Amino acid sequence: MKKLMLSLVSMAFFLNLAQAQSLRLDFETRGGIMFDSNPHFYADFLSLKASGDIVPGLSFTWKQRFNKAFTGSQPMNATDYVYLDYKVDGWTFSAGKQVLECGGFEYDAPPIDLHFTTEYFTAIACYQFGVSVSKSLGNYRLVGQFCRSPYATMDTPESNSLKSFNISLHGTYGVGGWLPMYSLNLFEATPGAYSFQFTLGNRFEVTRSLAFELDFINRSAPGSVSLFKDMSAVAYMSIVPAEWCEIMLKGVYDRNVLWDNPMIEKGLMKWKAGIGVYFFPLKENKVIRLHCYYWHQPDGDFVQTGLTWRPTILNLDFSKKKD
After folding, report:
1. pTM score > 0.70 for this model?
2. CB-facing half-sphere around the CA of 178: CA atoms within 13 A
3. In this structure, are residues 7 and 64 in contact, taking their beta carbons and an 8 Å threshold?
4. Is beta strand 288-297 parallel, antiparallel or unpaired with respect to 58-65?
5. Average pLDDT over residues 21-30
6. What is the residue-averaged pLDDT of the chain?
């Protein structure tokens, strides 16, 4: 009941923004059957996203995940992000709980579109409180961000105040050719000790029906810089033979022989590889998607099959009514 009441209060707060310029509500959920050593039904996503313009140039975005537990005095643990954007002359200033700016196309993908991932993606706390500023540069966007470190915990006030400094470069999907998704990150791992990370994410849109992605993430122990000792890599290919079908091939690898990284345990060397297919029964309308994904990793074989549903349940433009 407490969880439901807090969700309703949060929703009511944002719906009061109906006095704003616009309001959009999107719903998403995914579920199906997982075939592994213990086959079972699953439902791993249930969320609501609200976004809109408050006044020209000022907008808000809020995404609440209902399949994630509220935690004690931190009820926003179940909130993926909630932030304000102010846009002016190609600049965007943001503040709130937002996506931690890291490079890589696996990292950039909506979690509901991912079926198996690197251990790094699973472990990193990718939503953090902070501020950021970005600048549009044609088909690219340069972002600077200051926020809470993904190594921060609630254990002590000191560990809860760990900081992160991030710079990222984003390409624009759908423009064709080569798209970068790069980042430089300084994550405070313990008070005063920073781990340096860089990510080189590359997407090659060969045609409208064929794309390749290659991600390389390199992590270093605090106070040093090293290569290939603590790293993750992703190779991905997407083939779209028809509007109602997409075929994916993916392989990932994680390795840490360097340090006691809370995200990737020391000594880990793990790979996964698989193939998947999406079917869109409404063809060009992607609101309903059927999926089937198979992958292999050292501890076994896995098949995930099911349904994803992502409807827009409200899309209002109040500015027209006010004219």
Report:
1. yes
2. 6
3. yes
4. unpaired
5. 94
6. 91
Backbone angles phi, psi at 105, to 5 degrees: -80, -30
Q: Are the C-beta atoms of 49 and 61 separated by less than 8 Å?
A: yes
Task: Please state whether beta strands 40-55 and 58-65 pair in parallel, antiparallel, or not at all (unpaired).
Answer: antiparallel
Q: In this predicted structure, what is the pLDDT of residue 192?
A: 95
Q: Are the C-beta atoms of residues 172 and 203 closer than 8 Å to each other?
A: no
Separation CA 117–CA 233 (nearest Å):
10
How far is residue 242's CA from residue 54's CA, in Å, rounded to a whole number? 39
How is residue 294 written in tokens? 């198979």
pLDDT tier, 155 (very low <50, low <70, confident <90, very high otherwise): confident
C-alpha 184: how far from chain center: 17
CA–CA distance, 308 with 29 (Å, rounded to integer):
6
For residue 77, name the pLDDT band (cuts at 50, 70, 90): confident
Q: Which residues contact 252 (CB under 8 A, 6 or more apart)?
A: 106, 116, 117, 118, 232, 233, 234, 235, 271, 272, 273
Cα-based distances in Å from 22 to 4, 16, 64, 82, 259: 26, 12, 19, 17, 49
**Phi and psi torsions of 273, nearest 5°:** -150, 140
User: Contact 238/247 with Cβ under 8 angstroms?
Assistant: yes
* The pLDDT value given to residue 248: 98
Measured CA to CA, the distance from residue 204 to residue 206 in angstroms comes to 6
Residue 244 has pLDDT above 60, yes or no: yes
Residue among 121, 85, 114, 109 at smallest CA distance from 173:
109
Query: Taking a C-beta distance cutoff of 8 angstroms, is the pair 183, 102 a contact?
Result: yes
Query: In this structure, are residues 32 and 290 in contact, taking their beta carbons and an 8 Å threshold?
Result: no
What is each CA distance from 199 to 166, 214, 220, in whole angstroms?
A: 11, 11, 12
Beta-ladder partners of 189: none
Question: Mean of the pLDDT values across residues 159-170?
Answer: 96
